[in-house]
Every structure is written in structure tokens, then in C-alpha cells.
UniProtKB/TrEMBL annotation:
UniProt xrefs under InterPro entries: ATP-grasp, ATP_grasp_subdomain_1, D_ala_D_ala, Dala_Dala_lig_C, Dala_Dala_lig_N, PreATP-grasp_dom_sf
ATP-grasp domain segment(s): 100-302
PROSITE patterns: ATP_GRASP
Function noted in UniProt: Cell wall formation.
Lineage: Bacteria, Bacillati, Actinomycetota, Actinomycetes, Streptosporangiales
Keywords: ATP-binding, Cell shape, Cell wall biogenesis/degradation, Cytoplasm, Ligase, Nucleotide-binding, Peptidoglycan synthesis
Compartment(s): Cytoplasm
Catalysed reactions, semicolon-separated: 2 D-alanine + ATP = D-alanyl-D-alanine + ADP + phosphate + H(+)
NCBIfam families reported for this sequence: PRK01372.1 (NF002378)
UniProt-recorded name of the protein: D-alanine--D-alanine ligase
Pathway it works in: Cell wall biogenesis; peptidoglycan biosynthesis
Length: 305
């Protein structure tokens, strides 16, 4: 393998994160002696892939363009090998309620939730629907778009009066809301990396935001979050978290790499929040922190691609 194209950018809300991730991945691959080109997923991409196909494509696109399987479907049509999950698996993971259903069927714990499109609040009356949600799930709640990442449109609701504003913020980034029972505990991320075809859970990264919210600013502003690797978990809780990430990776049919976001409650039970098929690779992203803690270079993922 000599030539790799890194796909980064796109037109999603996470464009800048993707560009930062792409540059970091490209630098790592260049450091390993590979010829690397960063390209956008635009009209100029297909002619390059057809006329001068690379040995491998490394998609680092975030948001719908990079995580819903569409770009990977085109790569499959062209017969170009690439890093990461195949289209069907991407579609499962991209839609959070669908992914939750798959994970529950696999016996994995995930917060109790409801999924409601924006139209339901308009058609049935927002106040009545919100009251039913609070009655069913209790407080606090966590509200987020059913699709998307980087905590965009996500918020904690501790009082019923905060729910309308949380839904307005959520619907700014999507047409449906996933409303979950808030789980109080330690937030961790567990990466899974396939090396020579074997899936391995990386050290869990504990997330401690300074302002108590791991929002967009806390994720991508240096110094706004403390990351502890390995996470400060009891041995049994650590084993359960790593096992959960591996089982989620398998249940969703992912390959090469993924990152599971979990909350470990006070009893040590891991609750799976979501699974990312295109984890961020910026200097404050979680998968690179786990790779560093494990002493593994990102170029090792190429051995399974």
C-alpha cells in the first residue's frame, strides 16, 4: 500500500471537525511513508477514483455525508477499498433509535427513551406530548437529534420547564428528537480497533468537562475537558465497558474501527449511548487518546482494511 486518499470536509454542521480530523490522519499516514492526498467528497472526487484509483480511501467525514453510508456505497460501486464500516452497518449506527433497538436486541443496556418527530408536537399539542414524556421517563432527561454528532442540538433537561427550549434546539439540527432518561454516572468512550482482523477494545477514556457539559465547545476546545486514560473505573466496571463496546461493534456489523460512548452508573453498569462509525481524529478527540494510551499508531488500522 502506497497511496491513500483521506476524505474530509463535507457540508455538514461538523465540517470543521472533519477537516481537522482529516489533516491529523493525513499527517500520521505521511509520517509512515505513505503518499497521502486530502480530498472533499465533491464532483471532483469520482474522476480521480476512476482514472487514478488509490490503494485505499480513509473516510474521515462526519455528519450525514460521512456516516449514513452513502459515500461508502459509491466507493463500493467503484470497487475502491476503504477504511471503516460498510454502508448497511453505517445506516444502522447513523440512526440512533435504530441502533438502540439493535443494541437492546443484543442484550446491551441503553437508556429508556422515546423518539418523536417534530410534527407530533404540532399535530397533537406540544404541552400534552411533553407532559406525557415527563410522566413516562421522569426527570432529568437528555434530548438530542436522532441523527448527527458532536453534541449539536443536544441538552440536559433537569426541570420540565426546560423541555420546550431543549426541543427547539434539537429540531434546529434534525426533524426528530431522541429523548432519553438521563443516566447519572461516569462518561467514558471506548474505541474498538481491528488489527489483522481481530477486534480489540482500547483503553476507556474518562470524560470530565470543566463546565459539567460535554458539549461542542468542551469537545473541541483545548483545556475545556479533562481526559483520563484509562478511566477511573473499578475493574469489574472497566471489563463491562470494554465488553459492551466490543459487543456493540459486532452487533451493528461494524469493521476496522468504531467508538462507543457510554455512561457507567453508580452500580458499575454500562449504558450504551451511541456508536460512531467515523470517530473524530482531532487533537482533543477520544479515539486518538485511546490509541496513544495503548501505544498503537493509527496506521495499524490499515492492516485490516
Amino acid at each position: 500500500m502506497e497511496r491513500v486518499i483521506v476524505l474530509a470536509g463535507g457540508m455538514s454542521y461538523e465540517r470543521e471537525v472533519s477537516l481537522s480530523s482529516g489533516r491529523r490522519v493525513a499527517d500520521a499516514l505521511k509520517g509512515a511513508g505513505l503518499e497521502v492526498e486530502i480530498r472533499e467528497a465533491d464532483a471532483g472526487l469520482l474522476p480521480v477514483l476512476v482514472e487514478d484509483p488509490p490503494d485505499l480511501v480513509f473516510p474521515v467525514l462526519h455528519g450525514a455525508e460521512g456516516e449514513d453510508g452513502a459515500v461508502r456505497e459509491v466507493l463500493e460501486l467503484l470497487g475502491v477499498p476503504y477504511v471503516g464500516a460498510r454502508p448497511d452497518a453505517c445506516r444502522l449506527a447513523w440512526d440512533k433509535p435504530t441502533a438502540k433497538a439493535v443494541m437492546r436486541a443484543a442484550g446491551l443496556a441503553t437508556p429508556e427513551s422515546v423518539t418523536l418527530p417534530k410534527g407530533v408536537f404540532h399535530d397533537l399539542g406540544a404541552s400534552g406530548v411533553m407532559a406525557a414524556v415527563v410522566e413516562k421517563l421522569g426527570l432529568p432527561l437528555f434530548v438530542k437529534p436522532t441523527r448527527g454528532g458532536s453534541a449539536l442540538g443536544a441538552s440536559v433537561v433537569r426541570h420540565a420547564g426546560e423541555l420546550p427550549a431543549a426541543l427547539v434546539g434539537c429540531f434546529s439540527y434534525g426533524d426528530a428528537a431522541l429523548i432519553e432518561k438521563f443516566i447519572d454516572g461516569v462518561e467514558v468512550a471506548v474505541g474498538v480497533l481491528e488489527i489483522d482482523g481481530t477486534a480489540t477494545a482500547l483503553p476507556a477514556v474518562e470524560i470530565v468537562p470543566l463546565n459539567e457539559r460535554y458539549d461542542y465547545t468542551a469537545r473541541y476546545t483545548a483545556g475545556q475537558t479533562e481526559f483520563v486514560t484509562p478511566a477511573r473505573l473499578a475493574p469489574a466496571a472497566m471489563d463491562a465497558a470494554l465488553d459492551t463496546a466490543l459487543r456493540a461493534h459486532e452487533a451493528l456489523g461494524l469493521r476496522h474501527l468504531s467508538r462507543s460512548d457510554l455512561i457507567i452508573d453508580r452500580d458499575g453498569t454500562p449504558y450504551l449511548l451511541e456508536v460512531n462509525v467515523a470517530p473524530g481524529m482531532t487533537e482533543t478527540s477520544l479515539l486518538p487518546l485511546a490509541l496513544h494510551a495503548a501505544g498503537i499508531d493509527i496506521t495499524r488500522v490499515l492492516s485490516s482494511a
